[in-house]
TrEMBL record:
Gene3D superfamilies: D-tyrosyl-tRNA(Tyr) deacylase (3.50.80.10). HAMAP family: Deacylase_Dtd. It comes from Pelagicoccus enzymogenes. The keyword tRNA-binding applies. The keyword RNA-binding applies. It is found in: Cytoplasm. Belongs to the DTD family. Keywords: Cytoplasm, Hydrolase, RNA-binding, tRNA-binding. This is D-aminoacyl-tRNA deacylase. A motif (Gly-cisPro motif, important for rejection of L-amino acids) lies at residues 138-139. CDD domains: Dtyr_deacylase.
């Protein structure tokens, strides 16, 4: 599982020309599911995202989490994060989870984030053609990969 977490002042997702969901200050998460991901990966990445301290404290240091700033969370599925570019110029998506597993794991991460944060996590629609709009704050962008937990 891979996640790209961006600190944002706002973010939204539009599907078919209609606003689907939006957030104010908080984190936008792009989430890619690997075919070999497990329930342990779901829990690990949800805890990392929820507790990530990328928001400024009163001294201007990145030392606060979403809970500390009462921030919002928007999670978008993005299988292209699992792309392999080892050969040629066309990415391979062979390691991406098949749709049924990908959707189940995506929903499990969102549910775990709901439970950990106590907030209603905003989402996109799995496998939809989405337009994501964001204003990256900082910019601050953090990467997590469950295959590199250490």
């Amino acid at each position: 599982m891979k996640a790209v977490i961006q600190r944002v002042t706002r973010a939204s997702v539009t599907i078919g020309g209609k606003l689907h969901s939006s957030i104010g200050p908080g984190s936008l998460v792009l989430l890619g599911i690997h075919k070999d991901d497990t329930a342990e990966d779901v829990e690990w990445i949800a805890r990392k995202i929820a507790n990530l301290r990328i928001f400024e404290d009163p001294e201007g240091r990145m030392n606060q989490s979403l809970a500390d700033i009462d921030g919002e969370l928007l999670v978008i599925s993005q299988f292209t994060l699992i792309a392999s570019n080892k050969k040629g110029n066309r990415p391979s998506f062979n390691d991406a989870a098949p749709p049924e597993k990908g959707k189940a794991d995506y929903e499990a991460v969102c549910q775990a984030l709901n439970q950990i944060t106590g907030k209603n996590v905003q989402t996109g629609v799995f496998a939809a053609d989405m337009k994501v709009d964001l204003l990256n704050d900082g910019p601050v962008t953090i990467l997590f990969d469950t295959r590199n937990k250490e």
